[in-house]
């Protein structure tokens, strides 16, 4: 039987964090129960629903099926890392303004998937938004307001880029 | 909440080191690449290895390049990388299409093409929690003696559910396996067998290291389509891949089709040559080919969706992919 816990070194939201975890923990379990970062949600817990989505080396990744030691040495961004000291991420403001969250359980994962999309393009088409969010299930909203919010956050980022200032 | 059973996690950096670890831990160990199939299955207690040998850090298993007349795809390339690779898109658009439609975006970022080949078969009575399976007395594939699909017989009928193998079969791809005793290579159609419990010729100690597609196959017209409940996330209920060599004047020189997600291995459709070779792929011929496909597909109630409907959709999807061949 393997040792009970091991130290894993994770780069989370720009910080290097060390945490003792059982070797068979998933990244999601290490984030939530080791580091107290409970923003990433434990939904289906088997890689279907997307509520646990975090950004691993710039790619949306399901933390509930990622063994924690696989994440060692990679850059992890969780929903807690999207905002900066100046204020919320434009996506978070847009979700607020558009009423894009109802129960909110899928929101952290959707924000992570959408943030990666907006890194690639700030003017995604409706189809591109749908494709980028096609691995995230929402059972409340019907998605329309979510798509609207992502498009509007993209527009704000474009305007900010044109003005050459952060604006946040 | 679904907890994983305890295991030690090993991250070898070479194929030799990985097979060495497998030699050492033998039955207690399993290989894992993207983990998108194995980890959920472990959470369901379908596998309980106490050692996981991770292949993602093995650099020999990555890389997509032309080599000795083949396009060589390293097995640890993710499905997203395969789908987005310019050379794959140019030479083998049906493969890019199939890889790009596996599950959802996050799963394609983690899941690998080698893992897609080794995907465990799926069944309503198998892909469930231990509690669920136990309530029914387990099944033939895992922990039990009865098949709840057929109720008779000792043959597991769980469905092969991967998207890329049918396309690779229509393109004549080869699979390279590495084990403690060295390497071997076999045509992909020989890689799969009709045993739902374990449906490949890969032995548990072997690693799929690469997939090789002959560059000559790039001149073939190719198409792929799949049926599933949602357009994302879900496993296929039916997948159809076709490729054909069609002359400038429209004469079919050769044609082949493969369907899967019905039985334990992808099925190469038979009897198409007699109907199509030497003729042209017009509406009548497409109907005949679709009907020939329909005659040979008999899915069982192994997935959650009605088998009769899945069977009825076979000619519909065969027609769709053949129409695509005509216009590409």
Structure write-up:
The complex is a heterodimer of chains A (168) and B (328). Chain A is an alpha+beta fold and 168 residues long. Chain A has two domains: 6-81, Beta-grasp domain (Ubiquitin-like (UB roll)), CATH 3.10.20.30; 90-163, DNA polymerase, domain 1. Chain A has helices spanning 27-34, 90-98, 107-120, 126-132, 144-163, and strands spanning 6-12, 15-21, 53-56, 59-62, 75-77. In chain A, helix 2 (90-98) packs across helix 5. The relative contact order of chain A is 0.15. Chain B has 328 residues and is of the alpha+beta class. Chain B has helices spanning 15-25, 38-43, 79-84, 86-91, 93-99, 105-110, 113-117, 130-135, 164-170, 188-191, 272-276, 283-296, 307-327; strands spanning 8-10, 29-32, 51-54, 64-67, 70-74, 174-179, 182-187, 207-214, 221-227, 238-246, 252-260, 267-268. In chain B, the strands form three sheets. A five-stranded antiparallel sheet of chain B has the order 4-5-8-6-7. The mean pLDDT of chain B is 96. The chains are: A alpha+beta (168), B alpha+beta (328).
Total strands of chain B: the figure is 12
Instruction: Estimate what percentage of residues of chain B fall within beta strands.
Output: 15-25%
- CATH architecture descriptor of the largest domain in chain A: Roll
- Strand content bin of chain A: 5-15%
Distance between the termini of chain A: 51 Å
Element order of chain A: H for helix, E for strand: EEHEEEHHHH
**CATH first level of the largest domain in chain A:** Alpha Beta
CATH homologous superfamily of the largest domain in chain A? Beta-grasp domain
Look at the structure and give the mean pLDDT of chain A. 95
Q: In angstroms, what separates the terminal alpha carbons of chain B?
A: 47 Å
Shape of chain A: globular
CATH topology of the largest domain in chain A: Ubiquitin-like (UB roll)
* Class from helix and strand fractions of chain A: alpha+beta
Q: SS-based structural class of chain B? A: alpha+beta
Sheet of most strands of chain B: 5 strands, antiparallel
Task: Give the count of structural domains of chain A.
Answer: 2
Order of helices and strands of chain B: EHEHEEEHHHHHHHEEHEEEEEHHH
Radius of gyration of chain A from the CA trace?
A: 16 Å
Low-confidence runs of chain A: none
- Which pair has the most extensive contact? A-B, 31 and 31 residues
Overall shape of chain B: globular
